[in-house]
Design brief:
Strand content: 15-25%
Radius of gyration: 14 Å
Mean pLDDT: 93
Strand order of the largest sheet: 1-2-5-3-4
Helix content: 40-55%
Shape: globular
Distance between the termini: 37 Å
Structural class: alpha/beta
Length: 141
Amino acid sequence: MDIRQISPTYAVTPQIDVADIPAIVAAGFTTIICNRPDSEVPPSHSAATIEAAAKAAGLNFVINPITHQGLNMEMVNTQSAAMKTSSGPTLAYCASGTRSSIVWSLGKAGDLPTDDIIAATTAAGYDLGGMRGQLDALAGS
């Protein structure tokens, strides 16, 4: 598992496994968000399989599958609401962490300066500089 911190309360990682749940709990996360559609994974890694293990460990689990082509503001709002209602840090996952970084960035547009959003994702290894115009537009700049 390759957890990359984006903010003090939000981190992303590539696909997780049921075996990763104890380490996620030990790291202090209280919510997991699945941003990976089940069509991309085998049954052993389906959202329902990971969700069952997460809930058994006392974690909140949110399913918010995202594709680059289908990404919309409803998905951004679902992600933001899950983070806001979490009782502690949130860990989101997808194939590489990129989609989870993108949806966080779109949700933070207007709350954080665009430069800060891009710096946070870049520091975690996700260069989202190409989204500057979209982030600025969402922020009303």
